[in-house]
Specification:
This protein is α/β, with parallel strands linked by helices. The chain has helices at residues 2-13, 41-53, 61-68, 74-77, 114-122, 147-163, 184-197, 218-235, 246-249, 252-257, 279-290, 313-325, 362-372; strands at 81-83, 86-88, 98-102, 128-134, 167-173, 204-207, 241-243, 266-273, 295-301, 330-335, 399-403, 406-418, 421-432, 442-446, 452-457, 460-464, 467-471, 484-493. The longest helix has 18 residues, at 218-235. It binds ligand IDC.
């Protein structure tokens, strides 16, 4: 450890040079609706059995209050409304909602259970759940979905969120049906019923069109919104309504230039995926707020916009800092065990509540640490020695991939130039995702070109062409199921970075 710290300090002094990294994202990362299938029947049953096995953990009232104090809740902050650009509580106090979105409730219905919501509320300090109901896609509400079953799931979700003193968003999740006017009549009927049902609820927000896209204009969205808002308001005068913006909720500037004026108590949604959307979208968000637009980030991910691929925690942290500065609410995508990097559960996890450390993906661990304020230990630490680490170079070298039994997360800690040759110091964190403990491990780090290894620590290193092969030392080979190994560091010479195929 002492040697490593010395190395770190030496490296900190080195000059920084730019290294360009290209990420080739693999197949299967697209927004392809055909990827999504109803979970198989056996799997569903397994989940239900799992649920039945879970003991009911009902904490005492005082414990509950202690654990969730400091976050807004319906019992304390009451009915929310919009003042200027802010979301405020019943007494005019600023309120930030932070929480998690379900995946499509048609595909992952089993996470809608009270024990599951309880854990995210009490342990993660989430104060909002978003219930994402796809309108198209397979099993969608307006396509081949079972409307009654989907509405029942939404109602159960509202009931469980209410029982846990959380706010809840009913999300009409348009996506492949890119223009909300495509299913205007069904939307009217759905929101009529929901606004009647929740006429007196303090904690329900309505998100009336997830992500207009594919050329849908702000005028299209605005005219749709005016109709739907009218329908909702005729039953429920006080509901905060979230309106999507064009181009997958990125063109908030268009809404800012021409906001809805016939109704108030509206917020406009912006969505980002940190490995794809960076400074440009942040600047657009700031300008829209400065122009007076109330913004709500009803969906975001820390991976790329496909919902999969590389994770960029440095960019994600910049987003969080900005949203906190402006007191914007934000809801993470997604509560499922789908094999994609935005899912907060590992695909090996078949539980639907009572999750343990070993069940969460990198996105899940980041989210929990961010919500609970334990971001310092973001990736978990095998030996707790997180002190003195230099900050990652923002946006560079932050990748996550699977190598054998281990999920590998990489980051570049520093890069500089040595007599014209680019040099980079990487750090890896490994997570045992095999579902069993191991006594040794080996991982491959694929580069875009042949590299030369200058140094490496906490592992045995060998280079085979473009691949750096690392095996465990005798002191860090044993990793429990779901456990992590940190501080795997190395320095390489080469112009180009990691290549994920
Ligand atoms: C993605 C899911 C993925 C599913 C796909 C359906 O993560 O499993 O196959 O939808 O087409 C959005 C959407 C959200 C997307 C998500 C990631 O609101 O539905 O979920 N995303 O692609 N906007 C930007 C990213």
């Amino acid at each position: 450890m002492t040697l490593d710290k010395r190395k770190m300090r030496k490296i900190k002094k080195a000059g920084i040079a730019m290294i360009l990294l290209f990420v080739l994202l693999g197949a299967g990362c697209g927004n392809n609706s055909s990827e999504v299938k109803e979970p198989k029947e056996e799997k569903k049953e397994e989940r239900i059995e799992e649920k039945a096995k879970e003991p009911e953990k009902e904490p005492k009232e005082e414990e509950k209050e202690e654990e969730t104090s400091g976050i807004a809740s319906p019992s304390v902050n009451g009915v929310l409304h919009v003042e200027g650009t802010k979301l405020v509580g019943a007494n005019g106090e600023n309120v930030q909602l932070k929480g998690i979105s379900t995946h499509g409730i048609a595909w992952f219905p089993d996470y809608i259970n009270e024990e599951c919501f309880r854990q995210f509320h009490e342990e993660w300090k989430a104060n909002v759940i978003r219930l994402a109901m796809y309108t198209a896609e397979s099993g969608g509400y307006c396509t081949d979905g079972d409307k009654e079953k989907l509405k029942d799931l939404v109602k159960s979700g509202v009931e469980f969120a209410s029982a846990q003193d959380m706010y809840v968003i009913i999300d009409w999740h348009i996506l492949s049906d890119s223009n909300p006017n495509m299913h205007l009549e069904e939307a009217k009927a759905f929101f009529t019923e929901m606004s009647e049902t929740y006429r007196d609820a303090k904690n329900v927000l309505f998100e009336i069109c997830n992500e207009p896209n594919n050329g849908t204009t702000w005028q299209d969205v605005k005219s749709y919104a005016e109709e739907i808002i009218g329908v909702i308001r005729s039953n429920k005068e006080d509901a905060v309504i979230l309106v999507g913006t064009p181009n997958w909720c990125q063109y908030v500037d268009e809404a800012a230039a021409d906001p809805i004026t016939t109704y108030d108590n509206i917020m406009y949604t912006l969505h980002f995926y940190a490995a794809t959307h960076t400074d440009d979208l942040r600047t657009r968000m700031k300008s829209a707020i400065d122009a007076g637009l109330p913004i709500f980030v009803s969906e975001y991910g820390i991976c790329d916009a496909s919902g999969n691929g590389a994770i960029d925690e440095a960019q994600a942290n910049q987003w969080v800092a900005l949203m906190d500065e402006y007191e914007i609410s934000y809801v993470a995508w997604n509560l499922s065990n789908k094999a994609e990097s935005s899912a907060i559960l590992l695909s090996t996890c078949t539980k639907t509540s009572g999750f343990g450390e070993e069940d969460f993906s990198t996105s899940g661990i980041w989210l929990r640490n961010m919500l609970t304020g334990e971001a310092e230990n973001a990736a978990g630490s095998a030996d707790g020695s997180d002190a003195e680490k230099p900050a990652a170079v923002a946006g560079q070298g932050n990748f996550v991939w699977q190598s054998g039994d281990m999920e590998v997360s990489s980051s570049i800690k520093n890069s500089w130039d040595e007599g014209g040759t680019p040099v980079s110091q990487y750090e890896l964190i490994l997570r045992n995702t095999s579902g069993k403990s191991c006594t040794s491990w080996e991982v491959d780090v694929p580069f875009q070109e042949e590299i030369t290894l200058s140094d490496g620590w906490n592992g045995e290193y060998s280079v085979q062409g473009k691949t750096l092969h690392i095996t465990s030392k005798d002191y860090n080979g044993a990793v429990p199921e779901g456990g992590s190994v940190t501080d795997i560091g190395f320095i390489i010479k080469g112009r180009n970075g990691i290549e994920l195929l």
